[in-house]
Amino acid sequence: MAAKPSIPKGTRDFSPVEMAKRNYIFNTIREVYHLYGFQQIETPSMEMLSTLMGKYGEEGDKLLFKIQNSGDYFSGLTDEELLSRNAVKLASKFCEKGLRYDLTVPFARYVVMHRDEITFPFKRYQIQPVWRADRPQKGRYREFYQCDADVVGSDSLLNEVELMQIVDTVFTRFGIRVCIKINNRKILSGIAEIIGESDKIVDITVAIDKLDKIGLDNVNAELKEKGISDEAIAKLQPIILLNGSNEEKLATLKEVLAASETGLKGVEESEFILSTLKSLGLKNEIELDLTLARGLNYYTGAIFEVKALDVQIGSITGGGRYDNLTGVFGLSGVSGVGISFGADRIFDVLNQLDLYPKEAVNGTQLLFINFGEKEAAFSMNVLAEVRAAGIRAEIFPDASKMKKQMGYANSKAIPFVALVGENEMNEGKVTLKNMETGEQKMVTPQELVSELK
Amino acid sequence: MAAKPSIPKGTRDFSPVEMAKRNYIFNTIREVYHLYGFQQIETPSMEMLSTLMGKYGEEGDKLLFKIQNSGDYFSGLTDEELLSRNAVKLASKFCEKGLRYDLTVPFARYVVMHRDEITFPFKRYQIQPVWRADRPQKGRYREFYQCDADVVGSDSLLNEVELMQIVDTVFTRFGIRVCIKINNRKILSGIAEIIGESDKIVDITVAIDKLDKIGLDNVNAELKEKGISDEAIAKLQPIILLNGSNEEKLATLKEVLAASETGLKGVEESEFILSTLKSLGLKNEIELDLTLARGLNYYTGAIFEVKALDVQIGSITGGGRYDNLTGVFGLSGVSGVGISFGADRIFDVLNQLDLYPKEAVNGTQLLFINFGEKEAAFSMNVLAEVRAAGIRAEIFPDASKMKKQMGYANSKAIPFVALVGENEMNEGKVTLKNMETGEQKMVTPQELVSELK
């Protein structure tokens, strides 16, 4: 029975130090969400497959973890069906539940099921793991947390403004310098509209994105190669060369998109969001970036993405406005806007830049060395006082060798150690040792508390 | 596609109010764990079935949620195997992973896999959901959280003492009056030993438990019925009638168990734990209770259980000392002691006794009513100040009818509302309305902050 245990590939154990860091990340995000009036919900890890299937494309369906039905999952299956060995088709017979793939579909399902209890606009956040049977690779896991916030049931652009304030506040608190990039689906649609190539949005944004690297001539050549007409390419020139401040870019776009109602609406929305944010004063830069083209089959208005300035890594937060969150479950007219912080990447960035505050990662503040039964009994009384004052403290439970006990303090990075011997007990005091400086002094329990507070 | 969505039976959505209450419970437990030097870990939701199977008995194996292998899970299966329709046997072919059933087995697996990184004694806590394909019924769910703390790698009874202090502190913070019941497996073994009926421990504890209800004669009759000899029943009399303070009970047991080394060891351990706790001064009562017989095939020393005094409900916390946590994974000699708080039952108790502190459940403290674009722009600036001061505040994103906006404040139980019109903007102030008293006054942003702090 002594099998060497392992964990499923793509999953992780989190050690105490990793957990402290992860909690620091989640708590920081959570606190800021609360400051803006967002409320937490949780949904079950399992959803009915009928809720999940068909929501993430054919590829997504394959990446769902399916849970085998309890009991006799063969019932009702003919020999022919079984022997067909059709893994996809039979999965739907063997399994009726699956693990959640993201937080958006369960949220949509939640809104529909609880619509009568919810007061709209509904500002909800959700921090829970999701599961995907993706091929595991560096930085990609089969179980990972998402931290989403959405406002549904309000079309006001103040929601976009506040989400950008949240992003700015969270990364300021982390000490991560970022550039917030913003775009608008309607501007992209407007561009496609005026050049008459509505199916080429992605080709256009990809080509524009290469301007710095390959130069204007090559960008134009690439557009031509993608089948875009000379006339359209000519019209695109001011957009490819779009430059300057956000205000300057918007002014140019207003001219170029003059013939597109949708495009102008996108410019207007971006203008409102950017000018309101300017008057509120963000700590981080926000930049209108037309090459930002995430979630084009999903987002209908503003699109955002956050890039870390001091670390080479993909986007660490993203989001946007969408229509009709819940239509697929029979409730139409619920639009919203949301963001999602990439906790795993933020974890990596904070590690690389060594930005975790000491107090966030440190656990126990004080360890009592155990010299024997009498000394331990004395220590336990002092411990009770110290803990009542809110200080995280422990006693080494066994009267082991000093070296082992000090090694324990070191490996847990405990900054102070208390020593209690005959002398200390007689005087009703403890000797407090600062593990960093090596300094020692005898103090009363009250002094101990104020030293550590 | 407009299917009416549902969630798997035995699972739950948690609304914002429920989440606030649950977070209050988890945070309280977590804070006390930290005060005692416990560190958090997390393990994956999925474990290899080889890790889980055979650890919870045959019944437990059936209650595991199994995850279907990705890709072609039929590969390597003969027609005969398939047509056998042996659900249990084929599950092990179709599935190699399962959802965790408790936190103990994953913890044991964690200790074995990470033994070289861990400094012992290892004081870990873990707060995560577990899944069981049990028949759902009132108060029993297929997905629920466990909140476990264990110390492994130390035989010191100070660990038992500290776990009881943790229990005492947690329930004191909750305001739930409890009785902590403690027993010791070695005392029960000693009793069985001296009466020569080692397989009858459970029958004996069950019968003793009925003393108050059915009286001594009936208890003795029941013991006889269970096949216990007259001589053994005679020896059991002082134990059945055990009474008085913990000290008195222990004195009696010392006499009765004089001939059992194991029994005396159990008495000695209980004496140490109870006398140390007495000198430390618990807020709640702790009682030696021989009828406490949980986890007899698992616990080897102290056994504890916590009962709420003011609500009729089963045990709300339990635990004990065990040997050989990790033997099944090839690492012997790791003993430990642990407790587990029953979060769902504590949730019910706090609800029934209405003990949630207001500040734990309340979210947003201040709502700005939205009277239009200009007013909203002014409000957003005040909001930024208020939030920078740490006050949870929001603005109704749309300039909807007053009634709708006030209804939103009411349904979210927001205690203060800020009104901004022409007057307020001219004076650089806001009108602050206390939603409970109806009182209104004009205040500067600075005054607003100090009112709400």
Shape label of chain A: globular
Report how far the terminal alpha carbons of chain A are from each other: 49 Å
Question: What would you say the CATH architecture of the largest domain in chain A is?
Answer: 2-Layer Sandwich
Largest sheet of chain A: 8 strands, mixed
Assembly status: homodimer
Widest β-sheet, arrangement of strands of chain A: 1-5-6-11-10-9-7-8
Radius of gyration of chain A: 29 Å
- Average predicted confidence as pLDDT of chain A: 94
Strand content of chain A: 15-25%
The total domain count of chain A is 2
CATH fold-level assignment of the largest domain in chain A: BirA Bifunctional Protein, domain 2
Question: Largest interface, and how many residues on either side?
Answer: A-B, 113 and 114 residues
Give the number of DSSP strands of chain A: 16
User: So what's the CATH class of the largest domain in chain A?
Assistant: Alpha Beta
Query: What structural class do you assign from the helix and strand content of chain A?
Result: alpha+beta
Instruction: Name the CATH homologous superfamily of the largest domain in chain A.
Output: Bira Bifunctional Protein, Domain 2
Low-confidence stretches of chain A: none
Helix content of chain A: 40-55%
Number of helices of chain A: 19
